Queue: 3 jobs
Job 1
Amino acid sequence: MLTSTFVHLKGIGSSTERRLWEEGIADWTAFREQSRLTGISPSRKALYDADLAAAQDHLDRRNARYFAGCLHARDHWRLFRTFGARALYLDIETTGLSAHDGQVTIVGLYRNGRMSTLIWGDSLSKDVIQEELDQADLLITFFGSVFDIPYLQTHFRGLQVSIPHFDLCFAARRVGLQGGLKHIERELDIARESDLHQLDGMEAVRLWHQYRAGDAAALNLLVRYNAADTRNLEPLAECLFDRLITRYGPQSLLPL
């Protein structure tokens, strides 16, 4: 999908991009091979060719951060197939909705099939989170662009998020899926252990306070709950990407 993307070019929006696809300009190579294109002046075409050559160079060097800057956040989903193998799935638990009043208690990180759980007062630190982000090419969360990342950056001053961010909450809305993560999981038959079905953010707060009062079992349940939220982002991302391709991608990328 990335090499079929043209909306990062100045002056090209989704309607022009779709017209290019319909005219057989399926990717960057096809665009650059054409000497002339309808509705695009020769001088503008030359600028676009240079921009696409630069994009191809950054892609060849696997520089995902370049695309974080030139693509609008709503289009970061287009990077999933290209950079998904080095994606970092992230989900946090807190003691409140406001980052100014609450505390980050758990940070779940899932990458390359490995689950890491950072716990406040033990393993949770800015340096560990930053290292995980720096080793990834794509960040994937559910509502994280509004909640998780601003919350973390409030509590860990200077935390840098320079990689593209595929926020599944807003991707779900774009393909007609409403509600929170658990509701969407049920709609898409993404499973989690039965004893975690009734847990939510408020219950996570209660479990944290139980743990702080000396209940080790409460922490174990909280960690399992967060791990389910974090790991389930991977199959959800796969499903949403396929639906986004169907709705917003070129016909050439649709399954036969």
Job 2
Amino acid sequence: MVLETEDLRVDYGHVRALRGVSLKVRRGSLVTLIGANGAGKSTTLKAIIGLVRPSGGRVFFENRDITGRPTHKLVAQGLSLVPEGRHIFPDLTVRENLKLGALLIRDRREEERRLAEVMEMFPRLGERLNQKGGTLSGGEQQMLAIARALMQKPKVLLLDEPSLGLAPNLVQLIFEKLEELKRGGATILLVEQNAYQALRIADYAYVLETGRIALEGPAKALAEDRRVIEHYLGG
């Protein structure tokens, strides 16, 4: 198991956001975490990558306890987060944004190889390398955020609501890119409100409700579960 949480708990003051979340991500799999707003999905990712400190429980990465370790050290170890809202640098060009994702690379030729790889995956960015990030469309900014994370070749890619606020055609494009990454062997933990699309491409899924895992199982099985259909698939 490349990534695992065990009884993970997070408190915001007197509010318990996570109430014992245990999940597992196998190498080369795409695991999704779905649930309503406020269920604790984003908090789970933040606790994994050290942006919030758990009040209890453990996080394991490649069988090592990384609970509460600083984010920059976890990034160096191979974890990468694409945050909700993209958080690109609007006044920097596409190329400059991508180079920030390669800060840990010391070999200039390796950096250029990785740049070529992400350009092949996102050709639209290749056409806009010298354009400022803030002038891109919402879908292009999401592509840029994902491509920037991929520049470091993460062992596990954490994605927080990549389809949020995008037009339907761009949502479809983003999920096509995630499927492409999955076919290429990437390991992905995806937090997503669009349960239909998430369950369609995932191998395994967890349903989070008020800080607890309410359901889990193979994604295809959950997509046919009456409770999931009624609450998350508009059925």
Job 3
Amino acid sequence: MLSPLLTEPALLAGLSAIAVLLVITWVVDLLDLRRKRASQPGYSKRKAYARTMLMLWTTAALCVAAWLGSGRDLATLGLSAGTGWRGLAGWIAALLASAYVIYTIYLAATSREARANIRQQFDTAKGMDLLRPQTRKEHRDFQFLSVTAGVTEEIIFRGFLIGALALVLPLWLAAFVSVAAFLLAHIYQGAAGLGRIAPVTLVMTGIFLVSGTLWPAILLHCLVDAAAGGMIALVDHHEAADKAEPVPA
């Protein structure tokens, strides 16, 4: 069953890079959680952002190099604009989902009740304290991280991983493994966090499978992550005023 991959050393190297990324992410996130919750010195969000960006760009570059080294091109990796009705459907789905994300930002900016709900989710989310920006520089770096994650994670988990696994698995199963690997990379956020991430992950995977291009999913992924940073800034900025007058039951 694995024989097609065994004859593709470049793809095996790419899969190994993804495995290494997952292991390093689990170990580092676990250590960071323990250090931060024990109020130990040495933890810096900006350093954590920079480290994550370095790991993601490095892994994505290795995956692209592995894909090209296997004799395939960028279009088959998903880095094309998409054509035909399938490409159009992917872009429409991404734009509709993006419109919903923008609407949630609008609600956070205009509704005290919406901010209260978002604030509660952030405050109770396991692992959120590792990523939640507070200072202006942290918010700026978080936006860089959002773009990084949007581009690199789509290349790694959607384009490369699905493409490589589809050589030995049915496409639906390759997609399932991709979703599982993506969620494992975010396991530090706990069950509640994974519950919020899973629907978005399924949508982005579906968009890629339908359209055959990564770009609509990349657009949506960048926007979702950037919007999370924007909503953190909004709820924190209005926290004192919101709490001064309780939200009506």
